[in-house]
Write a structure and sequence with these properties.
Blueprint: H1 4-10, H2 19-28, E1 37-38, H3 40-44, E2 49-53, H4 57-62, E3 69-70, H5 79-84, E4 90-94, H6 98-110, E5 116-119
Length: 120
């Protein structure tokens, strides 16, 4: 449909699935992810800041931000990982591929983590 989801709804066609998820995805697409990029020094001034390093364990072991927590990207949605990430903390995502960091940030935003940043 040429008018997208809104056109579909206005035409009276049913929306199958979770309407809130669809609205959240539309809202997320309006996010300027460049605004989420933060320097380490600035991040350390955030209240209740947690650095979360999603890079390969070998890279993490070789060098990582002081006090960063390592989470294997493949374990991102595991129960222990989700329990470890407190929604009341500001989370600073670390990954050496900016697009992957953006996907992680977007995913956590969809999961209602309010304060997400991407380390510069």
């Amino acid at each position: 449909m040429r008018d997208g989801i809104n056109g579909w709804k206005k035409a009276g066609f049913p929306i199958v699935g979770d309407q809130k998820l669809l609205e959240d995805l539309i809202s997320l697409n309006k996010t300027d992810f460049a605004q989420l990029v933060i320097a380490e020094k600035e991040a350390r001034n955030l209240k209740n800041c947690t650095f979360v390093d999603f890079r390969d364990k070998t890279k993490f072991d070789k060098h990582h931000v002081k006090d960063a927590n390592h989470v294997d990207y493949s374990d991102m949605f595991s129960k222990p990982m989700m329990e470890e990430l407190n929604k009341s903390n500001s989370l600073v995502i670390i990954h050496d591929v900016p697009e992957v960091a953006g996907v992680i940030a977007a995913t956590l935003k969809l999961m209602d983590y309010p304060d997400i940043y991407i380390l510069q």
